[in-house]
Design a protein that fits this description.
This is DUF3800 domain-containing protein. Keywords: Membrane, Transmembrane, Transmembrane helix. It comes from Kribbella orskensis. This protein is α/β, with parallel strands linked by helices and about 180 residues long. The chain has one domain: Ribonuclease H-like superfamily/Ribonuclease H (Nucleotidyltransferase, domain 5, 2-Layer Sandwich). Helix content is about 40%, strand content about 25%. The protein is built from six helices and six strands, in the order ββααβαβαβααβ. A six-stranded mixed sheet has the order 5-4-1-2-3-6, sandwiched between helices. The relative contact order is 0.25.
Length: about 180
């Protein structure tokens, strides 16, 4: 069965697009684990709003999950974040199809969903017919698995010990574009 990928972005130290790949058999258990990380009154885990102690706790928990993370990094150098994001999607989608047999991709919804769809459709139109990918946008409050790329992108963007805390699940940080 095809893997699932959950995608979010971060704008720390350039532009980061993060994909976390999960096998379908692991989706329910990982989603359940992530929900336990929410404190009372929280609708989601969002690293930007957590204390350092809480960030360490969250990274400790997610580093134990059976998930693989890929981060695509673009230096802005005067380029817009949108252009950097497009370049990251153009590199990420073929990687997810070819290296991880991803059949379903969920991207965190934002005000640029339409532009995301255009770029993803463009990339898919260049692929052989056998490479099928279903993709959709979703809000992180309704899909806890979108918390994972937020967590991992935040840690990679911060670097140092935070990045180290991602553990073995952080497979690659790939530079994209000029």
């Amino acid at each position: 069965m095809a893997s699932h990928a959950y995608v979010d972005e971060s704008s720390r130290s350039g532009y980061l697009l993060c994909a976390v790949v999960i096998l379908p058999a692991d989706v329910t258990a990982i989603r359940r684990t992530l929900r336990t990380l929410c404190k009372p009154g929280q609708r989601r885990v969002h690293m930007k709003h957590e204390s350092d102690g809480r960030r360490r706790e969250i990274l400790s928990a997610v580093s134990q999950l059976d998930a693989q993370t890929l981060v695509y990094r673009a230096v802005l150098n005067g380029r817009s974040e949108r252009r950097a994001q497009d370049e990251c999607f153009r590199t990420m989608v073929p990687d997810l199809l070819e290296k991880f047999a991803v059949g379903r991709m969920v991207v965190e919804s934002c005000d640029q969903d339409h532009q995301d769809n255009q770029v993803i459709r463009e990339v898919l139109s260049d692929r052989p017919a056998g490479h099928r990918l279903t993709y959709l946008h979703s809000a992180p409050a309704s899909e806890p698995l979108l918390w994972l790329p937020d967590i991992m992108a935040w840690a990679v963007g911060r670097g140092g010990d935070w990045k180290r805390r991602c553990g073995q699940g952080l497979l690659d940080v790939r530079d994209v574009g000029p």
